[in-house]
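S., here's the first fold you wanted:
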Amino acid sequence: MQPGWFSKPVVVSVGVAGATRHLSNTQQAIELLTTHWRDAGSLKHQSALRACRQATSGDVPPDIAREALIEAAREAHILVE
């Protein structure tokens, strides 16, 4: 499995202090989605996790996963726009 690199990083604010993270690939996104996600289990969270795993396997383009990640981050109110 290879990380799928995004065309542009996704910037999110995580943790109690709101630390900013720049997610550049699907591996980084999977790590965040599985360990530090506020609304884990929501439909958009599940969709983003599935898309990132598929992109890591080469089944979908990384930017499809990026868009799903953006939607999940927006829903969780952690997307930095």
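And the second, which I think is the more interesting of the pair:
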Amino acid sequence: MIQDYQIQEFLRQAHRVGDAGLTLCSSGNISWRIGNEALVSGTGSWVPTLPKEKVSVCRISDGEVLNGVKPSMESGFHLGVLRERPDCDVVLHFQSKYATVVSCMTETPKDFNVTAEVPCHVGREIPVIPYFRPGSPELAEAVKAALKDHNSALMLKHGQVVCGKTFDEVFERAMFFEMACRIIVLSGGKYNTLTNEEIDDLESYVLGKKG
């Protein structure tokens, strides 16, 4: 049973995403697993100012809407990722300024590892998803497949999607994704990336510190 305090926390986190400039007006959507159900921003809602009455409650297993509020058109990939990734409780689709520019480039970067934060938080490899109509079953399947073994993905001519265990993890992932793309765009394509050896050394250090 979804509690009011959980809805309030979901709203707080949605507004945090908007305040950070990760979404604009009705762009983007967010979901949060609570037991066997998920809170999903409602269709046509503005994440930066998401109100309680635009929060949809869906059953994760089959997508059935439990409170009469229609979820985002992208709920197919939100629920699909939550089904595929029991280790992840939050999914965020965002369209931040520079990362969205990168998604529209004629030549998509092959390597986003411009700083240590990228392989540590966003992902050593970021899958690039071909363009599919927003809200389409094809896009939902493509996102689900991309995030099966990754935590971040770039959707061509559309935006970005990240997943994680907590709101903080997902927020950090999205912010560093945007930071990397800002560096790529502002450098005019003349940027350095970490070598495989540097990333291996970095990962060993981080894992060693965590252990």
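Why I say that: The chain has one domain: 4-210. Strands lie at 29-34, 37-41, 55-59, 90-94, 128-129, 152-155, 159-164.

Talk tomorrow,
H.
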